[in-house]
Backbone:
């Protein structure tokens, strides 16, 4: 494992430098917020994906019908801005020879840009995030052949886990806080649906905040005075840390349970001890429980000179998404987006990832069932908890189960 990591650290730059003069290549775009409040997600996803690309290129490239194609990466920083995301998608949609796009974080960016990729029939694997609307938008009006796939724990899965965690702890009165982005509003609606389905829990306060807000005391005081026993939160940026810090300031000592961005470094670092105990769904915990995950974590640390991945979930999903795409290209024996799409919808061989072994993750697109282009299932998602600057397993039984995959 150690030797592999050292090799990876040394070859990444060369492997991503682009194809040699005259060599054929496979064009892959990686997009996301590499700067700004969502950067831990976007940059971790990009860097995890680039590790996978470097591994494949070092082995000669993608096997396309017996011919090896070097992966050429095109990076674009959307800065978590909808209008920039739309411009990037338009640019990529008009890029000659582009086969696929991996990335995105923000729901608004996806809603603004993915339509251009769909129109030009370019495969897009959304990862590491984006809310439910990123897929349900294609159901009304229904799209026939969809080129957009999502490789993230769906908000329906996450919101169910958040509500069930609150119920498991015996809470009957909760407050919901969410940011004002499309992601936050969509997450709020998912939480409300799950609470309604549960039937024995009341929402005593619903509060929102804007990106950039630093003082959440007014919203939190309303939730506290309403008797909330837990705070369910949905947001994407450093504002999450402001919530945790202001909860401590006003003595609002209730559990903070929310979407997976509570695992990001900008929450953990800015909240400090006030973030300890926060709970969130996770698709990957930075814990070397298998040989593959250990090698991946070690390679990431050495390659990018860090002791902790800023967003482990994002990095692992970026890495595995590249290998799913590579498997589809190999099966299709083609770099043509239409054939890659068909292969992704019916992958014949399991793909050994750092998250799990992926067996037929996607199905044939069905406009009546947006889950048909969703890879993650409930079994692939666990609850994590912030403890002393890291995300750890909230349930050791999950750790034992996933060690066997």
Residues:
């Amino acid at each position: 494992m150690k030797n592999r990591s050292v090799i990876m650290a040394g070859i990444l730059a060369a492997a991503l430098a682009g194809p040699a003069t005259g060599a054929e290549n496979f064009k892959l775009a990686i997009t996301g917020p590499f700067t700004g409040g969502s950067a831990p997600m976007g940059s971790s996803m990009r860097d995890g994906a680039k590790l996978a690309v470097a591994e494949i290129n070092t082995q000669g490239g993608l096997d396309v019908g017996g011919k090896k194609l070097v992966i050429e990466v095109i990076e674009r920083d959307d800065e978590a801005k909808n209008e920039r995301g739309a411009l990037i998608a338009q640019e990529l949609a008009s890029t000659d020879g582009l086969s696929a796009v991996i990335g995105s974080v923000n729901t608004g960016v996806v809603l603004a840009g993915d339509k251009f990729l769909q129109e030009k029939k370019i495969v897009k694997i959304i990862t590491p995030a984006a809310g439910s609307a990123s897929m349900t938008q294609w159901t009304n009006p229904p799209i026939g052949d969809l080129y957009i796939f999502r490789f993230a724990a769906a908000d329906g899965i996450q919101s169910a886990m958040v509500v069930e965690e609150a119920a498991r702890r015996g809470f009957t009165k909760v407050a919901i806080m969410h940011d004002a982005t499309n992601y936050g509003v969509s997450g709020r609606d998912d939480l409300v649906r799950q609470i309604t389905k549960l039937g024995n829990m009341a929402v005593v306060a619903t509060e929102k905040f804007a990106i950039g807000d630093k003082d959440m005391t007014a919203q939190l005081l309303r939730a506290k005075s309403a008797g909330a026993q837990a705070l369910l939160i949905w947001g994407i940026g450093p504002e999450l840390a402001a919530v945790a810090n202001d909860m401590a300031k006003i003595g609002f000592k209730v559990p903070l349970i929310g979407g997976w961005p509570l695992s990001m470094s900008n929450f953990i670092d800015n909240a400090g001890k006030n973030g300890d105990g926060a709970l969130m769904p996770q698709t990957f915990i930075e814990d070397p429980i298998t040989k593959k995950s250990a090698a991946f974590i070690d390679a990431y640390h050495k390659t990018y000179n860090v002791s902790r991945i800023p967003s482990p979930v994002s990095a692992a999903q970026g890495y595995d998404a590249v290998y799913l795409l590579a498997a589809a290209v190999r099966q299709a024996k083609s770099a043509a987006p239409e054939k890659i799409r068909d292969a992704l919808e019916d992958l014949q061989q399991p793909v050994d990832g750092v998250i799990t072994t992926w067996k037929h993750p996607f199905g044939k697109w069905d406009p009546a069932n947006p889950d048909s282009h969703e890879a993650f299932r409930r079994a692939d998602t666990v609850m994590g908890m912030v403890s002393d600057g890291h995300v750890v397993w909230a349930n050791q039984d999950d750790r034992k189960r996933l060690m066997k995959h």
The mean pLDDT is 92.
